[in-house]
Amino acid sequence: MPDVINHKIITTAGVSRDIGAIADKIRNGERINEEEALQLFEKGSLPFLGSLANSIREGLHGDKTYFNRNFHIEPTNVCVFSCNFCSYSRLYAHKEEGWELRTEQMFDIVKGYDGKPVTEVHIVGGVHPKLNLGFFADLLRKIKAHRPGLHIKGFTAVELDYMFRKAKLTAEEGLKLLQNAGLDSLPGGGAEIFHPEIRDQICSDKVNAEGWLTIHETAHQLGLHSNATMLYGHIEKYWHRIDHMKRLRDLQDKTKGFNTFIPLKFRNKDNDMSHIPESTIVEDMKMYAIARIYLDNFPHLKAYWPMLGRQNAQLSLSFGVNDIDGTIDDTTKIYSMAGSEEQHPSMSTAQLVTLIVQANRKPIERDTLYNVIRDYSNFDVREIEHNPLLN
Ligand code: V47
Ligand code: SF4
């Protein structure tokens, strides 16, 4: 017999009927609405949400878990903006505490990968007042001329918005220029929390939600794919997260240009929001699970291991996540400055494969657009470690 607790009928399985009805919808492949997503945040237990998200993940991808071989370049940490959560940027006035790479230095980083089987370079940094569109277009051309097959995923909508405004170009004109110079896709950064109630408190001076979404929509129309992030676990409420995901889901219905959603856990070291405690692991896993359930038109859900930590990223593979980013090989301080345990994040292919296999999933190396490069399910990790073509 069911018990009545707090005016809700609790079934013998411990799931209230309204939550049970939402679960039925999800199991039938129906889309849930914002109110239902809020109920999941407020009342869904972790194992319950995990099992729903996992069934969606397995329906889409089975046990496949993607990673890629990439490397990061941060052109500068000098930034005209002052996001309160940022531990990494330095204002131009304090640029002696920052770094600023010359084209040749960035090109040397790229050349350092000659002969290595990387498929992607990820270029994201601060918004430097003196590095303009022409500077970055030249960099892209140089990289492409040297290594045409290397996918360039570069520049958040925040960086792009600033570059285009300074160059007095529309998003379409600016993106076409960069695309012609070699840009292949956009990363998902700069999204933070779209709702102005929160955005105005944590990053009031950079591009707003409409501007961020317009740049991604325009990119999609030009045939460039992109990712989307959300910075969660600070002052926002659950409904702000849902509002954020709704705006993304609506745009994805229109363009189908997003590849991956990446929830970014707020890290609180050395920034203006350090007094806010970080989210618990239970909150993190709930976030992934609900993102997997609500964003039914996003093909992929990524756990970004340098920010989340390796073991938590491994755990997230049971909560809807099917991608753990890549080798990264970052030599700057962007992550450790925000409180990540990773000083210079870098994982070998053997380490990524091991992490995925330990979670009983199938490691698949992908390119940026999720074309399969190699299935590692039948590889012996020792074989990968000792083969320079594989590691
Ligand atoms: O937008 C800044 C976040 C983002 C903190 O598309 C912080 O594949 C946590 O865009 N705590 C930039 N997060 C990173 C980014 C990205 C990263 C990995 C993969 C992809 C992709 C994109 O970093 C910013 C901001 O949300 N961030 N400070 C912090 N204290
Ligand atoms: Fe600048 Fe990005 Fe840091 Fe904001 S998060 S201050 S835009 S580097």
Would you give an account of this structure?
Helices cover 41% and strands 14% of the residues. It has helices at 17-27, 34-43, 46-61, 103-111, 133-146, 157-166, 171-181, 196-202, 209-221, 238-255, 281-294, 305-308, 310-316, 349-358, 381-386, and strands at residues 3-5, 8-10, 64-68, 70-73, 120-123, 151-154, 185-186, 225-232, 258-265, 300-301, 323-326, 362-366, 372-375. The chain has a 4-stranded mixed β-sheet, covered by helices on one side. Strands 7-8-9-10 form a 4-stranded parallel β-sheet. Strands 4-5-6 form a 3-stranded parallel β-sheet, with helices on one face. Helix 10 links the parallel strand 8 (225-232) and strand 9. Helix 4 (103-111) packs parallel to helix 5 and helix 9 packs parallel to helix 10. The relative contact order is 0.14. The model is unreliable at 1-12 (pLDDT under 50). It binds ligand V47 and iron/sulfur cluster.
Question: Can you tag this structure with a few keywords?
Answer:
binds ligand V47; alpha/beta; 41% helix
Gist of the model:
This protein is α/β, with parallel strands linked by helices.
Set out the fold topology.
Elements: E1 3-5, E2 8-10, H1 17-27, H2 34-43, H3 46-61, E3 64-68, E4 70-73, H4 103-111, E5 120-123, H5 133-146, E6 151-154, H6 157-166, H7 171-181, E7 185-186, H8 196-202, H9 209-221, E8 225-232, H10 238-255, E9 258-265, H11 281-294, E10 300-301, H12 305-308, H13 310-316, E11 323-326, H14 349-358, E12 362-366, E13 372-375, H15 381-386
Parallel strand pairs: 3-11, 3-12, 4-5, 5-6, 7-8, 8-9, 9-10
Antiparallel strand pairs: 1-2, 12-13
This protein binds ligand V47 and iron/sulfur cluster.
Iron/sulfur cluster (SF4) is lined by residues 79, 81-83, 86, 88-89, 126-127, 158, 203, 206.
